[in-house]
TrEMBL record:
Gene Ontology MF term list: DNA-3-methyladenine glycosylase activity; metal ion binding
Keyword Repeat recorded: no
The protein's name in its UniProt record: DNA-3-methyladenine glycosylase I
Source organism (scientific name): Pseudoalteromonas arctica
Binding positions for Zn(2+) per the UniProt entry: C9, H23, H181, C185
Coiled coil feature spans: none
Matching Pfam families: Adenine_glyco
Lineage start: Bacteria, Pseudomonadati, Pseudomonadota, Gammaproteobacteria, Alteromonadales
Length: 197
């Protein structure tokens, strides 16, 4: 079966090749690497109020603007960097979101120091392994869950910004804390099988 004929999640616009590649190659695969998790957290917080595809198109811009998502370097950024990034067309030029990314980098490091890694901290909210949801149609997808609410509340308590329960749930989906591929999507079983060994 060619990749164009494969069944995929109902939310995916299959006319956009880059979106299909993201769905097939990244979305829902469990991530335990802190640098990748910082990238995902940064992109999700930038997405608040916008479409995910808008952010996906600017991903390379974010990578350049935020130093390949090197959390230590981003945490050192200052007001001068915020002003510079406000002129950067490669990202969403929202002062609060840019400042939030720098703030979140500092908070991310706080968590790394306390828990050994951000991954250790994050995965505790799903008991250390992906939750697999039974989803048949678009209306089955939740916007928030008990776990995303608890995760977001804890992040807020620790000083993170632009990471409410809905944004955090999108992050959980993206980095595989939940497998929200639809039941008929070819990636669902592949990801389960790959991560059961």
């Amino acid at each position: 079966m060619s990749s164009t004929n494969l069944c995929r999640c109902p939310w995916l616009d299959t006319s956009k090749e880059d979106y299909v590649a993201y769905h097939d190659d990244e979305w829902g695969i469990p991530v335990y690497d802190d640098q990748t998790l910082f990238e995902f957290i940064t992109l999700e917080s930038a997405q608040a109020g916008l479409s995910w595809y808008t952010i996906l198109k600017k991903r390379d811009g974010y990578r350049r603007a935020f130093l390949d998502f090197d959390v230590e370097k981003v945490a050192q950024m200052n007001e001068h960097d915020v002003e510079r990034l406000m002129l950067d067309e490669g990202i969403v030029r929202n002062r609060l979101k840019i400042a939030a990314t720098i703030n979140n980098a500092k908070r991310f490091i706080d968590i790394q120091q306390k828990f050994g890694s951000f991954s250790n901290y994050q995965w505790q909210f799903v008991g250390g392994k992906p939750l697999v949801n039974e989803l048949d149609k678009l209306s089955d997808y939740p916007a928030i869950t008990e776990a995303s609410t608890a995760f977001a509340k804890d992040l807020k308590k620790r000083g993170f910004k632009f990471l409410g329960p809905t944004t955090v749930y999108a992050h959980m989906q993206a980095c595989g804390m939940v497998n929200d591929h639809s039941n008929d999507c070819f990636r669902k079983a592949e990801i389960i099988e790959k991560n059961s060994v």
